[in-house]
Each structure stands twice: as structure tokens, then as C-alpha cells.
Protein 1
Amino acid sequence: MDVLSSILSFAVVVGLLTLTPGLDTALVLRTSLLSGRRSAWGVVLGIQAGTLLWGALTAAGLSALLAASHLAYEVLRWAGAAYLVWMGAQMLWRSRKGKGDADEAAASGEPGNGEWWSAFRRGLLTNLLNPKVGVFYVAMLPQFMPDGVPHVVMGLLLAGVHVCEGALWCALLIGFTGLVRDWLRRPSVRRGLDRLTGLIVIGFGLRLAAQQQ
């Protein structure tokens, strides 16, 4: 398999994965609807930075530790599950108090650097603390490594393809929410969205905690 064939084949696989509704989609939609485009792009860039880092770690052979070491996998799995449950619980608590992210953004105009970095950190940690992403790369990347190409370079290139597809899909999501944001940012709808997303995030955390290696 040559480099071009490897890239195209990998693009098809991760393209289908990207279009499958999941935690990343829920976070991007929720942030775009309640906090605006700038914070949503913070989440998107955080997620994609995590993806690129997983690709680099896998190509360097470091994340193979997750597949080989039960202890390493369990530590990361429980840390990720705890983080997701904590993040979902925060969303539920804010909706109960009626003080969601949108209220903070409305009070200060466009989200500042603090809100952007908070969104970026949320996306990055959500991705990095999910051992399933690392195991996916450990399982998939070797199948798309052509002979004669340095593994680190090819791993970064394939992860870059994943990042580009993810960013494009998220751009479409953010564009869509821009069309309906005025209606969806009503107080009652905001609280409902925060509760729904909080429950989804907690559900992903509980599912991660229940899964075995």
C-alpha cells in the first residue's frame, strides 16, 4: 500500500467515525448553542489537538502501553470516567441554578480569553482522558503504515487527516447552530439543553467506567 492509498483509506474510516454521533458532537453543539462560536471553536481545537497528540504518541509507540498494560488502561479509563461525570454534573448544577454558560457570555459580550481557554481545555481533556481513542489508534494506524515511510511522520499525517475531517464536520455543526441559536438560547430551552447534554456526558462517563479493556 502506497502513501496516497493509505491516506485515502484512512480518511474513509475516520470519516465514518467522525459522522457517528458521540461525545464530541454533543459538546460542540452544546457549546455553540449556549456560549457562541468562539467558545465552540475552543472546544473543537482542543478535541483536534488531543487527536493529533494521540496520533503522535501512537506513531512513537508510547500509547501502545494502553493496549499492553492493564494498569495503565485502567488508570486512564477511571480518570476519564470521573472527569466526564464531573463535567456532566456541573452542567446539571448550572441548569438547576439557571446560570449556564450563555448567561456568563451574555453578561460580558463576546467570550474572553478565559472562556476560550476553558473551552479548549474541556475539549482537550475530554479527548486525552478517553483511552478508547488511544486504543483505536493503536489498532488502526499500523494497518495504514506503508513501507519505507517513518512511522512518526506517517502517524502525524494520518492524525492530521482525522483532524481536518473533524474540524470540517464541527464547522458544519457550528454553522447549523448559528441558524437556530436565537430560538435555542431562550432561558427555558438553554436549561433543557444543559440538562440533556449533562445527562449525555454523564452517560458516556458511566459507560466508560463500565467497559473493560
Protein 2
Amino acid sequence: MGDVRRRGAVALGLTALVAPLTLALGATPAAAASCTTQTGPYQKQVEKFLGRPVDGKQSAADCKAIKAFQTKHGITPNIGYAGSVTWGVMDLMLKQKAVGNNPNKDGKCPVNKGRIACVNLSLQLSWIQDGKKLVYGPVPVRTGRDGDETRTGLKKIYWRNIDHVSSIYDVPMPYAQFFDGGQAFHQASVSMWNPPGSRGCVNMTKTDAKKYWSLLKKGDDVFVYGRKPGT
């Protein structure tokens, strides 16, 4: 932990070269209390996403806006640096928005199973469909991180527990619907774009987890496909 704090401190006080390194390695929120004056490699893209003047040069106002975005979504170090992790989250948001109301346009989630919950790992989206009819979604989800990937394939919901608490991580998993070993749909309190991801479950907002609970039942199909960015 001391090592991580030292890396964060270097990112705050020394050179521009260290900022991308700490962004990749991670740092504690406490170590990222100030704004950086350094221009990031994705400065223009991040400025455009945030509605800032697109000049490719870091300003105090740019940093404040970037830092607020990072803080909201749990991106560390939250020092306002326009690096690969921050732009990766924004880019994913843009791709998710572009899907609109046709998440199964590529036809990869089966339409011959009746009601089925689909999870597109590549776009970090999930939805419920009945045949070709969209029932709910698409909604952003947070799936397994590198090394704890959400497993792909056709599965079935085999157990539901509205007030589940993880026996492994000792954390609440409200509206849990298990479909593959310990992997389940459930509510999570973090941003759906919070890197690096879950321990394998499909995290959802409370609103979406409650809706999935009301729409799905034991025995319903779940289809997971694609590959989460960064895994």
C-alpha cells in the first residue's frame, strides 16, 4: 500500500512521464487529491466528450471537469489527467449510446429461446428479450475484471436470493440471480463504469437489478458473449 501511495505522490508533484504510469498501475484516492497541469495523450477526445473547448491543451477548467468525471466513476488516480483509462470509459459510453434500442442487431443473442437475458461483454450492455422483441434495456453493466472474467455461453438462472450476501467477499448482493457458479446478476453500489470491473458477476444499478428480478425467474436462459475491454 505504501508503494502505491508513493507512486501517486510522484504523479502529483514531479514529471509528466510518471502520470501515464500511475494511471496504468492505479493509485489510492487519497494520493490523488490535486489537479495535474499535464496534457494527456487523449486530451482532445476527452475535451470533446466533456463539452470543453477542444484545443488539446490542459487548463485548470479542463482538469476540474476531467477530475469530476473520474471521481464520479471511481477512476484512479483522479487527478484530471486525460489518459487511456479515462478515455476508455468515455469511448465505451459513446459506443453504448450508439446501440440505441437495437442491442441485438448482430443477432448473436439467441432469438429462439423465448425470454432470455443477454449480456454483451464487449459493450458492457445487458438486456432482456423475448424472441426478437426487446423487453427491457439495454442497460450498462459492470462485468468481470481481467482474471475474474464473466464466463461466456448459454446458461440458466438456477438460484435467486433477493438479500444475498457474498460468502467469499462478505459484501451485499441485492437481487442476486445466479446463472453460472458464483456468477450472478445483482445490484452494485459503484458506477457501472468503475474500472477494472467485478469479480465475475454482472453488476447492475438498483433500478435495473430490481427490474431484472421482476422480469426473470428460475430456469430462464442467460446468454453471455463477447469480451470485456481490457481482459
Protein 3
Amino acid sequence: MRKWISLLCPLIMIFILTSFRFQPASNVEVPDALKVNGPTEVLFPKNKTTFKQVMAVPPFLGSSYIGFKEALAFKESQGDYFTINTLGYLGKYQFGIGTLQLMGVYNATRFLKDPVLQEKVFHTNIARNKWILRRDIPRFVGQRINGVVITESGILAAAHLAGAGNVKRFLRSYGEFDVNDDYGTNINSYMKKFSGYDVSHVSPKRNAKI
């Protein structure tokens, strides 16, 4: 009896499994939104995604302070911490050696390799420029110069580009004095491009250093 049971059990299991009817995959209806109607490029490995491409457009930052510094960084270096431009300016925010030394940074190699230090230097420089321009910011914010409404963030971005002293002269001459950097970008264009960001929480600091 046991011998018959041991022979019948496998046959019963095979019968049960084969009794199920499976629908072929071709009968499954694919939603139109998921259908591919033409050849699709594969991003990797044919086209490698770089850090710059991933960080290029942070859409969620808006007019915050982080939005301000990321927008400025993208204009300066496309957000690349490790770049040196043709004039020797360094890092994500393109600082010159002289400006770094003013803030107590004397090792350019260390600066270039240290993203945390670069972020600290940027914030320190904003605080330093805000102190230098502490009288001009409340005086000129809201006024219109060369068709551009002056804002605090525009003033500080322009100071990053051309130095706080040149921005003072620009404002006090009502735009008659303007300077270009070596790539042709002027104070007025930075005033316009970086207007309207909230940089209010950065406190002005005299002789700010790291």
C-alpha cells in the first residue's frame, strides 16, 4: 500500500500543477503611457552622467539663501568645487588668492580639495561684504539703477564679482561707474541676475575670518 502511495503522490502533484491555466504575456494590456513607440537612448554607459549635470538645476531651492549661493556657484563654476579657471580663480565660488588671504586661508591646495572649507569661506565673505556695505544696503535697496531694482542679494552678488569697494562706487554714482571682470561680466548684470534672494539671516561681520 505504501508503495502505491509513493508512486501516486508525484503523479497527483503533476496533475494538479498542469491543471492550472496561465495566460500568456502577450495577452496582458500595457497602458499607453508605458508603451515605447520608438528607439530610446540609454544614458549609461553610452552617456555618462557627471556631478555637474546632476547638480546643475536645483529647482526646489527657490529664493532662499541656499538658492542664492547655488545659483551664484553655477554662474561662477557650474557648481564644481575642484575647478581652476584660466585666471587662477579657485573652486565652486571662484575665489582669488588675495580674497582667501583676507579671510585667513593661505593654502590654496587645501582650499581646492575641501568643499566644507569652500562653503565656510563663501559665507564668511558674504558677512564681510555685508559689513563693508552696511550703510549702502539700506540706502539703495528698492531704488532703480540702469533699469534694475536694487536688492540686497544683488548687491552682495555684485560684491562677490567685483569687490565691495567697486559696488559702493557703482551705487553712489547711480550706475555711472561700472566695471567688467576679465570675461566681460559687469556689476549691473549681477545686480539684475541675482536680485530677490533672501540673504537676511547673514549677519554683517567686520574683518570676518575663518
Protein 4
Amino acid sequence: MQGTWRKAALAAALSITGVLGGLAIAAPAQAQTVESGSVSFSGDPGDYITGGDSYSYSTENGDQLTTNGSADNSYVSVSISGYNGDWWSVDFDAPGSAALAPGTYKGATRYPFNGAGPGLDLSGEGRGCNELTGTFTVLNAVFGPNGYVQTFDATFEQHCEGWEAAARGEVHISNPPPPEPLDLELAVATDGIANRINGNAVLQGTVTCNQPTSVSLEGAVTQIVRRVLVRGTFSAQVSCTPGSATQWTATAVPTGTTPFGKGKAEAITRATGHDVEYDEYVTVSNTSIVTLTRS
């Protein structure tokens, strides 16, 4: 019987991937409004992007700057919404998946078509390069979780279409220290109920969190009853509030005609909450043996 149980548990562990595999965790961080920063650039006569003019924007002058970074800190984008209606963006991308760190990145080509090399792109006001070459220097880069850009200082030089005329500029971004990401914990009680009337299995447990969030729970219960594999899925949703554990209860309905019974069962559970600070979904999982008693 022990061998049968192990085989059944293995089958359940493999099949649960199909049941719960639809969950996805968002990778990129949401755009951040820059608390303090500036972007300035100018171009040589004949530069297509700048038209040979100079541009300067700063949060102190009422211009809105936003940043967006990648989770691996290899990419930073700065968008400009000028008080006067201008709009621009400049992208910096490190080679491969390396993090953007202080140093000079030569041989940059147009982001996001830069392949394994460094990427750069200054564009806006309806103008952009089809192809470009350039160089940028990261002077300072401090990141937080999930692509949060705390500090980013860089200078750049960009040549459109291989022309000699260049656009040159600098970026200075300063944001407060990053907020804590969502910390979600899941517990499943080791005792449950096998309902003798409808054959369902009732599980319970708790979730804890460090920021308010709605938590979705889903999972599957697997049990051997008289050499028959009994299996059922469950789902529940609770509102988690920091400071105390939030109770949850879920009911698994058997998929076949054999009801859940008294004895041990395997429960695989996942809990997912939305991190409002970073616009991320955080998922935690738990696999445990639950002892069902008849009720």
C-alpha cells in the first residue's frame, strides 16, 4: 500500500502542474514617476533627432519624468513629458543580461534591436533613428527590487544612420529608497475534514502579508481510498491585512464517484497576491500531508 501511495503522490505532483500552470508572475516593473531629475541633450547641425537644437527638462521646472527598469537591472528607460507639451524617451540597455553598472558602453546600437551588445535610443517628437551607433557612460546606478530605479546618472552620444552629426546628452534620476515588495506567506493546516454526506474534502489554513492584498488560493487534494485514487481541486479568495494571519477555508470536490475518506491526503496549494507597489503578482506554494477526519 505504501508503494501505491508513493506512486499516486508522484502522479498528483506531476498533474498539478497542468491544473495550476496558468498562473503567471509579471516580470517588468511599472513605470515610476521620478521625484527629482533632469534630462538635457543637444545636437550638432545636421543631427536628425535634435535638429541641431538644445533641450532641457527637469522636475523642478514642472516637466514630468518617468522611469522603467527591467527586473534584472539591465535596462533603464526615461520618458519625458514636457511642461510645454514636448515628449521624448531615452533607453539604455546593457549587453546581454548584465546589470547596468558604472562604466562606458561603446558600440551601442539601436534599442531594442541591439542583440547581445549595448543598446541606446534617443527619440521623440515624431523623430527616431532607423539605425544608430553610439556610446553611453553610466556614472551611477542604484536599483531596488523588481526593476525599481532609485538613482541613475548617465551621459550618451548618438549618431543616426551612420552620420557624423551627433546628439549628446545626460540623464540624472533620483528617487526615494524602494518600498518593500510584497511578502506573502502561506500555511496549510495538517487537519481537514472528509464530509461523509457529499464526499468533499475541506481544507483550511492562513495567509500573512506585509501590505494589504487580495489573495487567490487554488490547489488540489489527492488521496488513496480503498486502492482508488481520489482527486479534487479547490479555490478560495481572502483579503489579507498586515499585522495578523488571515484564515482561509476551501472545499475540494472529488472528480470521480469515490468520495474523500478518513485518512491522509496530499494537498498542493498556491496563493497569489498583487503587489501594488511594483504592480507584480507574487505566488507562494505549499505541499503538505493533511489528515482528514469524517464529519
